[in-house]
Amino acid sequence: MAVSSRQMAAGRWKFPVCNLRKRIILLVGLFLFLSRLCWGQNVSFDSSVDKTQVALDEQITLTVSVSGNVKSIPQPELPALDEFTVHSAGRSHNFNYTSGRISSSVTFNYVLFPRKAGKFTIGPAKIELEGKTYQTTPIEITVVSEDRTQPSTPPSGEEKQKVKPKLRGKDLFIETVVDKKKAYVNEQITLTFRFYQGVRLFNNPEYSPPSLTGFWTEDLPPKKKYYKEINSRQYYVQELKTALFPTSTGKLTIGGAELKCTVEDIDRFFNRDPFAMFDRDLLSLFRQGKPQILKSKPIQIEVLPLPDIAKPENFNGTVGNYKLKVSVDNTEVEVGQPITLKAKISGVGNIKSVGKPTIIELSDFRTYSSGSSENVSKENYKVQGVKTYEEVLIPKKAGKYTIPPLEFSFFVPKTKSYKTLKSEPILLTVLPPSQASPVEMAQLSKQEIGRAVKDIRYIKLPTSELEDQGDHLYKKPIFLLIQLIPLLAFAISWRYQRVREKLNSDVGYARQRRAHKSARKRLKGAGRLISAERSKEFYSEVARALLQYVGGKLDLPPYGLTKDQIGEKLSERRFKKEKIDNLVKVLDFCDFARFAPGSSTEEEMKRFLNQAQKAIVDGEE
Amino acid sequence: MKEKIVIFGLLALFFFLPLFEADANLESASVLLKKGNQNYEEAKFDQSIQEYEKILDLGIKNSRVFYNLGNAYFRQNQLGKSILNYRRALVLQPRDEDAKANLSFVKLFTLDKIEEQKINPFSNMLHWFLNLWSLDEFALLASFFYTLSMALGILMIFRRSKRYLRLVFVTLLILLVIFGSSLFAKIYLESLDYGVVVVPRVEVRSGPGEDFILQFTGHEGLEFRVDEKTERWYRISLPNGIKGWIPKEAVEII
Fold first, then answer.
1. Do A32 and A102 meet the contact criterion of CB atoms below 8 Å apart?
2. Cis before residue B94, ω within 30 degrees of 0?
3. Cβ contacts of B101 on chain A, cutoff 8 Å
4. Stated pTM of the model
5. E strand segments, A100-254
6. Which 190-219 residues of chain B touch chain A by CB within 8 A?
7. Which domains does chain A carry?
8. Closest chain B residue to A500 measured between Cα atoms?
9. Model pLDDT for residues A60-98, shown as the tens digit of each residue
């Protein structure tokens, strides 16, 4: 139970994790447990500095360490340090094996930058552990205004022969440099940051760039890395360049850059180890970082305003040195087809802030700005590039047009004067449209089409006779009556055809239907025989006609019909009694006249024919 | 036999007499039309309106007269009456391009913009077809196909079982059905009343009376269908489906 809680505490100390280290922790935990049993709580709390005398531009590392068997160690309370700028440089867990005893300790590191020269006392730091308050002893620090702490004697040959030669000069330092301290607004200033490194670093340095208010910044890659010898000491130099474009006039300050790094402190450990029983690799397990913060000095820049003298009207704040090239993609188009006008500005300067060249509006064109694109390059650590403005022109009318020259003005810092560039005019030919462009059509609304018609059409002058179209034809009786005609015609033909069909198929019916007709025909023929000498012939003809008529009606052979038979059959067919009698009477008279001697007069014969005709007409009805 | 001829002759006279009678009216009408046109040419539009209206008073309806009257009213800035007369001209002569053009032009000046309800393509086509010919033309066409099919029918009675004849006969019958039903559709459509607002402003209410709630304000030239008529009010519906009651004196029926 106790062991595990120790382990937990060890975990909380964030000891670097690896298998070997884990095992060691376990071991240490066990030892600590044992030591607690043996000696109980044994807390030591003290502070130390790496040096008591420093220069103003140097730093002091304040180490506050707490050791003992305490479960958790809080952050110690630092004394008021008004004379220093304090940075916390982290905390580390440490343990010592001294005289057969192992003690664990937590070290808090602080980096102090002196603010002024003089003698100061770092007051006691306080910590509260399990109800008890511990204090450290105060430390006296002397801050000198000059770099007196550094031995200035160059390293001698003797020293080089030592096993561990002591190197001269600062181990690490940074600097920021500008290429000029006076510049015009929007003129490039190159800020160079250099990191000089004379020792191995424990980890990657943390760079915080200087504050650059009032500048438009542009990083200038690549990072330069090289070796340089200063005071016969070899340094590894990393150089970082930034282009600055002042955006306002007056005095601007480039703040100091800061670099935080941790230096390896193996040598110290080595020196403390009396037995030198560990080799370096194993020692690297226990290596300690010594944090360091490097600062550079702020730089004052004077930004000059652009001169007002001879400032072109269309100047829009562009500084640098540029070239202007204007082109179109097509010089011959139809009405409604777009032309792309490109204005290409290339040169050295803050290309992103390059303004648009003035383009004169053309009344016969619709113009649309289709934006700009830029291509920035940073050759030789100078910001430069190409900016392209694109404009789409859509001609409204056919004809020849000239795009007037485009103007572009800028200030050249080198010559301290303004410069205006003019492009060549461009000739355009606009052809009449081969067909209405869809763009044009889409832009005409309902109202506009209406407006295209300017007036109503003129009245109609009489070309033909005026007619009344008022009464509808379908309401006129005459029209409706006329409509009956085809129907009637159809009905009649239908009926007629039906009758004809019956005549063709029914002989008896046909005879019946034809009886009257043929009888009349015969009677007519008999009429021609009316004369004294042919009276006998006449009577026999009439008799034949009547007999044929009766035979037809009765569908019987006409000859050999007795008068009784005739009377009987006809009455069967619902012939009227009168008519039958009439017929029989006529037939009787025919027989009498045929066989009687002498001849009858023409008068008599005519009267008789009439009688016969009446008889068959009557018979018909 | 003689009696029949007499009866037929009398009947014919009875039918044709109105035609001869109208002839006298037509002569005076064409004189009026000429006068009206002359006035129009001289830009005396109010007088030309009077002449044209006199023709209508004679009971004569003619698409040309309506068209010219529409023009004259438009010149007098009477949009409602102008639209009314173009519509009347188009009823008699549905294919009159001039009347169509002028109507759509005049309608641009009306204040009420109504979005017409979307009509399905079939009924669109039907309307297109029905507007191809006037009612009389449909009557004549139907009559023509009817006579033709009857004639062919008679031919078929006497020369029966000719295949191609039967084919033609069936085609004619189909045409007869199409034009016959179109004729009746057209008669129905023309029996519907349409109207135009002829006063500058009119208030359309929710019921037949001044006390009903005002639904919307119509302006001169607004067209609508009349659904119902009372003594003083018409119930109308607009092409977008809105209905309301409108005072009779503010409108004219096409």
1. yes
2. no
3. 453, 456-457
4. 0.40
5. 101-114, 118-122, 126-129, 132-135, 139-144, 172-178, 182-184, 189-197, 206-208, 215-230, 233-246, 250-254
6. none
7. 2-144 (2.60.40.10), 168-303 (2.60.40), 320-438 (2.60.40), 504-620 (1.20.120)
8. B158
9. 778 887 777 665 667 777 777 777 777 776 667 655 555
